[in-house]
Design brief:
Layout (H helix, E strand, L loop, with lengths): L11 H20 L6 H8 L8 E6 L2 E7 L8 E7 L2 E8 L4 H4 L10 E8 L4 E11 L2 E8 L12
Antiparallel strand pairs: 1-2, 2-7, 3-4, 4-5, 6-7
């Protein structure tokens, strides 16, 4: 367990954040070696404490993914369909210069690169997909891949 340094201005919430980060780190190292399903399991077990929050909706002929990225500029967001059931969102949030960070009493906002690999509820295709970014909210619409219905083979 990591040792928590206590300072005169440290709050219980900072201690909680450190403990959650330690727990997340241990879960990720523990689940890292379970292969292709590792990201799916990590996504369900490890809370999004350090990253951004994501909603996924399975809606008729499309899958809708909405991510909250407060303080991130559109130019610092990348979306990639890894495979038909996994979407990767990467964002970068820049912070203040060292001069500006010197006098903080409390600091909880997160800066730097954040990424999530999102498990989708159905297979999707990149064709006719669309992404919008407005007021720090990313919305990705992905069309579901057509399901194979098969054909009937007549018996002679």
């Amino acid at each position: 367990m990591a040792r928590i340094e206590r300072g005169p201005y440290r709050t219980i919430w900072q201690d909680f954040d450190d403990l959650m980060a330690e727990m997340e780190s241990r879960f990720q190292s523990m689940l890292g070696g379970i292969g292709a399903r590792g990201e799916e399991v990590r996504g369900r077990v490890v809370p999004a404490v350090r990253d951004f929050r994501v909603d996924v909706r399975d809606h008729e002929d499309e899958v809708l993914v909405v991510a909250d990225l407060p303080g991130v500029e559109k130019e610092n967001v990348a979306v990639r369909l890894i495979d038909p059931q996994h979407l990767e969102i990467i964002s970068r949030r820049t912070g203040e210069t060292e001069e500006e960070t010197r006098d903080f009493f409390m600091r909880e906002r997160i800066y730097g690169q954040m990424s999530r690999t999102v498990l989708l509820p159905a297979e999707v295709t990149e064709e006719n997909s669309a992404a919008t970014f407005k007021n720090g909210v990313l919305e990705v619409r992905l069309k579901k891949a057509p399901t194979e219905t098969g054909t009937t083979i007549p018996i002679e």
